[in-house]
Amino acid sequence: MAQKANVQPLHFAISNFEVLEHLEITVKVELGLINQALPKKSLTVTEIAYHLSQRTGENWTSRRVNEMLEDTNYQQKHYWQWEPTIKGKQFADFSSRVLKWSPEVINLILQQQPQQLRLAV
User: Fold this and answer.
1) Do the beta carbons of residue 35 and residue 59 sit within 8 Å?
2) Contact 89, 82 (CB under 8 A)
3) Cβ of 92: how many Cβ atoms within 10 Å?
4) Residue 113: how many CB atoms within 10 A of its CB?
5) pTM greater than 0.85
6) HEC readout, the chain
7) 27, 44 in Cβ contact below 8 A?
8) Is the dihedral angle over the CA atoms 111, 71, 49, 101 positive or is it negative?
9) What does the pLDDT look like over 41-92, one tens digit per residue?
10) Closest CA to 38 of 119, 113, 103, 116
């Protein structure tokens, strides 16, 4: 089978069970979050929240996005205004009065979210 770019192997372990003669495991992975096309323009945190809500089905707000960017050390509050940290400057867009971000931060935020894997045994 041909390998696709950006595909990572799925590793998991099962413990504390008795192996019977036939054991069937079905793994269902939600692919909706993987390799979706990113917007081409820089995004405000409100726009990032919209895209995250669309991808995850969760309620993302601009406040939650700002908190994630702060928690991951991509931005910090300077007086009353958000500004990118040294780590975040590579993703920040300073071309307008409003701080905007590269669409890549959508995937950076998604990588920080806990992943769930359900196994039907």
Assistant:
1) no
2) no
3) 20
4) 12
5) no
6) CCCCCCCCCCCCCCCCCCCCCCCCCEEECCHHHCCCCCCCCCECHHHHHHHHHHHHCCCCCHHHHHHHHHHCCCEEEECCEEEECCCCHHHEECCCCCCEECCHHHHHHHHHCCCCCEEEC
7) no
8) negative
9) 999 999 999 999 988 889 999 999 999 999 999 999 988 889 999 999 999 9
10) 103
110 contact partners, CB below 8 Å, separation of at least 6? 33, 52, 55, 56
Rounded CA-CA distance 37/85 in Å is 26
Structural tokens at position 90 = 């590579």
> For residue 4, which of 28, 33, 35, 29 has the smallest C-alpha distance?
35
Residues whose CB is less than 8 angstroms from the CB of residue 73 and which lie 6 or more positions away in sequence, other chains included: 85, 87, 88
How crowded is residue 72: how many other Cβ atoms within 10 Å of its Cβ?
16
